[in-house]
């Protein structure tokens, strides 16, 4: 979301992990009561008044989760969510939905109906291998639209094979510098 906003795109992040909202903490927002749950509980609420600007840059906006409701699954199943996303799509270039981890609750599968693309974020050396099986099942059964996977938190220093791409390493191991070659390990000295 931040990368898109830095490219000049108007972006809103919607906190749809409404059982355990976390965007207020991440973006240091003070008003924890106002958010998407207020709109979902009362569709007469002006959705755009709940959207907050961020301190990151002028193009990034946040629609936090709001007050934790007693009936989160019911709220997300209503067509108010569909209307909210349509309104946001008219006002922003990108609408990014931050959801609960899949497999924990059914909420994310309910939210999938309003998404154009689903991104499953995994952390290297942390996400359990069984979760990758779940990703394959979700993709095969088409339970989430256009399912993609992002693996973050990769420690390139721990990787011993494969191509050696990465910021700060370019020129040292790929293409330029004293060890010219096409991949990690190509042309390496045996002594280190």
TrEMBL record:
Q: Which SUPFAM superfamilies match?
A: P-loop containing nucleoside triphosphate hydrolases (SSF52540)
A single Gene Ontology MF term assigned here is: ATP binding
Say which domain of life the source belongs to.
Bacteria
Gene3D superfamilies tied to this protein: P-loop containing nucleotide triphosphate hydrolases
Keywords on this record?
ATP-binding, Kinase, Nucleotide-binding, Transferase
InterPro entries hit by this protein? Bact_polysacc_biosynth/exp (IPR050445), P-loop_NTPase (IPR027417), Wzc-like_C (IPR005702)
This chain's protein is named CpsD/CapB family tyrosine-protein kinase
**UniProt source species:** Bacteroides thetaiotaomicron
């Amino acid at each position: 979301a931040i990368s898109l906003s830095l490219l000049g795109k108007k972006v809103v992040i919607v906190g749809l992990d409404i059982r355990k909202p976390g965007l207020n903490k991440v973006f240091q927002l003070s008003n924890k009561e106002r958010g998407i749950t207020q709109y979902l509980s009362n569709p007469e609420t002006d959705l755009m008044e709940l959207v907050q600007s961020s301190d990151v840059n002028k193009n990034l906006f946040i629609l936090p989760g709001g007050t934790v409701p007693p009936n989160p699954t019911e709220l997300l199943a209503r067509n108010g969510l569909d209307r909210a996303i349509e309104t946001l799509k008219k006002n922003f270039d990108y609408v990014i939905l931050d959801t609960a981890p899949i497999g924990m609750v059914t909420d994310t599968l309910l939210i999938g109906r309003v998404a154009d693309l689903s991104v499953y974020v995994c952390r290297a050396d942390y996400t359990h291998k069984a979760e990758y099986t779940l990703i394959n099942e979700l993709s095969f059964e088409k339970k989430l639209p256009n399912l993609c996977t992002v693996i973050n938190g990769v420690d390139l220093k721990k990787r011993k094979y494969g191509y050696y791409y990465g910021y700060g390493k370019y020129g040292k191991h790929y293409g330029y510098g004293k060890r010219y070659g096409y991949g990690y390990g190509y042309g390496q000295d045996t002594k280190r």
